[in-house]
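Researcher: We plan to redesign the surface later, but first we want a full-length starting point. Tokens attached.
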């Protein structure tokens, strides 16, 4: 089936791409996944290349073909993309349109608590209806934290949401990470207004925890 989606994340995942968005008409979440378990079901560059030969970007409005849901114990928004269908870009959305189609979340917590990750065992106590791995929020009080240790460079964002301070969350938004490459290590308050797409990543096998990620950052 063909869906018209507003893309809110085209982020990095195991050297490939994690792509998520909302149905332009219903506001329903869609995380687009492949069959490739060796790539943790991420999408390849070929799969996100549009009919105009550009790569899909945040806020693109695209026609995609999906054929089945691919629910996991921690992600209920996943849909398998159809093989051989090239996505077509039909427009570009703005932040206000996104907010109209899918108003920012008003949950008390960002994925259940203020920690930066969730134990795998945590999901055993949740029903399917309680599980979510995508969340849209208005940009709260936020500070970008850039740290370097040897050859490693980390970009995280510290959030204060509904008067609760959160452990810094890793950023996977490729466009935002590119902008941060121009900055020296340090703390940088976000002073612009906008929206963020938060996601829960796959289980990190070394500690059996799922990390909360900031997968899409869209500022005015």
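Model: Full-length starting sequence:
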């Amino acid at each position: 089936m063909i869906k018209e989606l507003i893309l809110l994340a085209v982020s990095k995942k195991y050297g490939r791409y994690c792509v998520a968005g909302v149905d332009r008409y219903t506001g329903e979440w869609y995380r687009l996944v492949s069959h490739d378990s060796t790539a943790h079901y991420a999408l390849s560059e070929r799969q996100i290349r549009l009919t105009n030969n550009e790569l899909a970007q945040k806020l693109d409005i695209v026609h995609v073909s999906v054929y089945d849901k691919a629910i996991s114990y921690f992600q209920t928004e996943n849909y398998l993309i159809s093989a051989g269908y090239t996505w077509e870009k039909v427009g570009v959305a703005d932040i206000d349109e996104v907010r109209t189609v899918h108003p920012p979340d008003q949950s008390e917590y960002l994925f259940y608590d203020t920690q930066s990750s969730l134990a795998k065992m945590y999901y055993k106590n949740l029903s399917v209806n309680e599980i979510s791995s995508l969340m849209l929020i208005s940009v709260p009080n936020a500070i970008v934290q850039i740290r370097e240790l040897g050859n490693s460079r980390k970009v995280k964002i510290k959030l204060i949401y509904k008067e609760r301070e959160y452990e810094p969350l890793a950023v996977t938004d490729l466009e935002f990470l590119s902008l941060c490459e121009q900055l020296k290590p340090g703390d940088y308050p976000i002073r612009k207004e906008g929206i963020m797409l938060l996601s829960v990543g796959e289980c990190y096998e070394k500690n059996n925890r799922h990390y909360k990620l900031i997968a899409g950052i869209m500022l005015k």
